[in-house]
Structure formats: C-alpha cells, structure tokens
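Study this:
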Amino acid sequence: MKIKITGIGSYIPEKKISNTDFSEHVFLNEDGSPFAYPNEVVINKFKGITGIEKRRYAEDSYTASDLAFFASQKAIENAGIDPETLDYIIFAHNFGDVKFGTTQSDIIPSLATRVKHQLQIKNPKCVAYDILFGCPGWIEGVLQANAFIKSGMAKKCLVIGGETLSRVVDAHDRDSMIYSDGAGASVIEASDDETGMLSYESATYAAEEANFLYFGKSYNPDLDPDTKYIKMYGRKIYEFALSQVPAAMKSCLDQSGLEIDDVKKILIHQANEKMDEAIIQRFYKLYGQTPPKDVMPMSIHELGNSSVATVPTLFDLLIQGKIENQEIKKGDVLLFASVGAGMNINAFVYRY
C-alpha cells in the first residue's frame, strides 16, 4: 500500500507587490548603518539572485488560517470527499495567525482547529494539530499522513501549508523582499495502484545549523528591540543547502529503486532561484549528468517565497497547467524536496 494525493488546492492572495514597491524603503545594514548604494541597485541585485519580481500579500482582513481554509475547500472539492470522513488535519506553519498591522503570533486554538471549525466538521475523531518544521512543513505533514495511513490510524488526511510571512518581516532588512503569503492544501489517502509515494527522506541538522534562521530585532536601532522579526544568515543557508539537500534527494531517489532518468519533474521549495538551480545541478552531478531542460518548474518569480505554501501551491499550479512550458502526465515520476528552518531537509518520490 502507498499513499496518494487525491485532492490539491491552493490560495494565492490577490494583493500583488512588485519589486518597485520597495523603491522608497529605508534598507539598513545589520548594525543600523545605511547602504552605500541606492535602492535601485539593491533591488536589481536582489532580482538577479533570487529571481523574484513580484510576490503576493494576504488581504488585510485575512490571516494564515483563513488562507488555509480557502485552499482546503478547494482540495476537498478536488478530492470529491466528505470532509466529515477526514481522520486528521495537519497544518504546517511557522508564525501562526498574525493579524494585519501587528506582529504578535496567535496559535490558540491551533490553526488546524480553526480550519476544522471553518470547514464545519462535526466529527470529534477528526484530529486537528499544527506542526512547526520551517519551510519543509507541508512535506513533513505528508510524511506524517503516510505514517498514519500505513499504520491503520487513518484513511484520509488533510495536509496544509499556510503562512503570512509579510507580517513578520523587518521592513529595514532587504531580505524582507523575499517573503510572501499563501496556502496550499492536499487530501492524502491510501493507494493500491502504481501511483503515490514511493520513498521519502527527512532530517534535522541542529548542531551548527540550528539558528541559521531565527527571530531577531529590527536593523533600525530606533525601533523596540523586544519586537522580533524573521531573520536569516543567507550565506550559511545557501552553503548548507548546497552541501546537504542534493545528497538527501539522491538518498530518497535511490530508495525508490528508480533511476535519475525516470524523474520527470522536481518540485523544490521556492526560496531562491539561484540556490534552487545550484541544488539541481549538484543533484544531477551526483549521477554524472546535467539537468534536463524544464525539469524544475518555478513559481517564485511571480509569487515569492511563501514558505510551507510554496511546494503544494507549485504542485497545484502544475496540475492546472498554469506554469508556462510545464506539464505533467499520469505515470510521471516527481521528486518533491524542501529545506528550511531547523535546519530541516525532506523529500519524497511520487508517481503521479
């Protein structure tokens, strides 16, 4: 028995923020000093490295659990199931519900419970809980659903990744341009045919790597130092990802018994275009090959980095044929992979 994604849905906020919207921002160095060059240079360098031209921010009246509810409705409808038959709702996020204009996280009740409430599920045996696993959270939720179903503890699970990162960024940190908002959801069920998950890999590196992503004060020394924002050591994350993610992807693929030539698409966390391209190059190099054209669909150019939402949203867009020059067919082998705060890495091989 394998597990299969029988329904997929995403919610992409309407509010579009382009790179030019950051032209008047006051970007500062970590020590609070101003940059020695204008914002136009900052933005052009940013685009050249990350590939991001636009990103989406949630509507002011919505929180992460609202975005997740919208995505979940679509996934449930896509799967054609009665939501009362769900055994688990697993919600991966990082900062809970953060209302517009605030930075305080709200996670009581859990966001999964809030989605269950909004879906009007009455069944008390539908267990709802959150997981904090950084950007790889949705993939980890799928792996947990796999364990529940294979153990007999569940038949149907709803796995969600949702976040509003735009509300926890330091406006004076140029890294704030990376982040965006969104949600993706998936219904997971058992599969008795050839489709579904074939293998998986998951790991946490917490020796030197634990604090590569962290909560820290604003770069603006005039702001309250007790108010914290998402921060990262970008160079360290880049080096870590390039040294560890390709090997994890190879281990996962090798466990599946398939060959590198069998892989049709790689759906990797949309964090940084240059980093993702380098990961794919190194992954194929482990097999003595170069990546085939269009093996890595990308959504980051228009949607930015919505953390846990990037991979399920990418999958949804790919299935709908909404990514230019990209398509998948029944029987295609996909490799899902992610890296993020923890530092966590995970992956799974999937036959569509």
